[in-house]
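Lab meeting minutes (informal)
Scribe: AK
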Amino acid sequence: MTFSIAGFCADTGMLGCAISSSSICVASRCAFVKSATGVALTQNITNPNLGPLALSLLAEGQSLSRVMASLAVADSDVQWRQLGVLNNRGEGATFSGAQALGLHATAEGKNCIALGNLLANTGVPAAMVNHFENSTGHLAERLLQALEAGLAAGGELGPVHSAGLLLCAEPEWPVVDLRVDWHDEPIHQLRALWQNYQPQMAAYITRALDPANAESYGVPGDE
C-alpha cells in the first residue's frame, strides 16, 4: 500500500521524508517531520496519531527503543501498523506488525530508514536506502531520487496514486511540503513540483525571516 524513506543531512541538520502509495493523500496521514527533532512514518493500516506522538517522545529525549515501545503501548492495534522513526542524529528504527499487508520489508542505513508494504518485492526498501547512502546534494533531491529508485526497483505491487515530499530545516515550519494527492504518475508529478519549487524555496524563507529584504513577488500589483 505504501513505500517511504526518511533521511537526515549531517551537513545541514535537515530532516525529511518522501512517500508514495496507492491510497489517496498518503502524505497527509503517514509522514511527520519536526525541525531539530526527527521524522516519523506511520503506514500500512495507518494510525496517524502515532506520528505526532513519536515526534513528541523524541523531543523529550527518549531513545528510539523507548519511542517504539511507547508507540506499542499507545496503540493496542500496533500489529496492523508499519512504523519508522529517525532522530536528529540520523539514527533510525523500524517496525512491521504481524498483520502488515502483503510483501513487506524495512531497511536501516546511514542517516536513513525505508519501509514498505504490499510491495512488488522485499528489496524495495533496501534499494531506497542504498540510493540515499550513495547520493549527494540537497536533502529533498536525495529523498526524491531514493523514492524514484524504490519505484524502479518494483515499488508497490499495484499502481501508486499519491506521493509527498516533506522537509524541515531551521524554521519550525516545513521548508518543503509538496504533495500529489491523486495522479496516475504521482512520483513523476512530484518531481515536476520539486523542480518548480526549488528555485523559489529560499525566497519564501527570506520572506518569513527577513521581509524587508524579500525579493519582488512578481505578481500584478507588486511594485
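Next up, CB showed the second protein from the same session:
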Amino acid sequence: MKSIDPNDLAERDNYKFLTGSIIPRPVAVVTTLSNDGILNAAPFSYFNVVSSNPPMISISVQRKNGEMKDTSRNAILRKEFVVHVSDESYIGQLNMTAKNLPSNKSEVEDANLTIIDSLKISVPGIKEARVRMECLLEEVITLGGTKELPTCELLIGRVVMYHIRKELYDKGRIDAKGLQPVARLAGNSYAKLGEMFELERPT
C-alpha cells in the first residue's frame, strides 16, 4: 500500500487521485439563466443526493483561476436551476456543453439541444434529458482556499419538480436500465450502467 500526503501534491495531482478513485460518478447537466436571459448549461460530476426529506441535491462547482463560473453566478443570482441526469441518448451533446464559451453565448444553443419550459421556476430545461429536476437554491457554501478567495461553490438545490420520461416510470420507481445513465471516470473516460446485482441490507 502506497501512502501519500495530499499536502505534498499539486492541485492537479490531487484531482487525478480523487477522480481516478471515486468512480463511477454520476454526471449532472445544470442549466441556469443569466441576468441577460442567456441560458447557460454545463456538466458536473461532483454531484450527488443530499437529502430525501426534503429532496435536495448538491453540485460542486470548481472555480477557474479564482473566478466564479457562470453556473454558480447565475444560480446565486436567480436562486434556481435545473439538474439533468446524463444518459446515453444525448451524451455527445452533453459533452459539448463543457465548451468554454463567453457568458453571452448559450451552451444549449451551441450543442443544438432543445429548450423546454419549467413548471415551477423561470429557468428552462433541456428536453433531451430523460430525467430532469427543477431546483430552488437552498444554500450555497463557499469552500477551499481562503474566505476572500474560495476555490469552489457547493450548491445545494431543493427539488421542487421532477420530470421523468413515462417509459422510465414504474410504480414510483425509475427503470435504471431504461434510463441508460452515463457516469464519469477519470480523464476523458466514461462508463455505462454495466452489470447490476443486489445485496440485502443486514438487519
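CB comment: The mean pLDDT is 95.
No objections, moving on.
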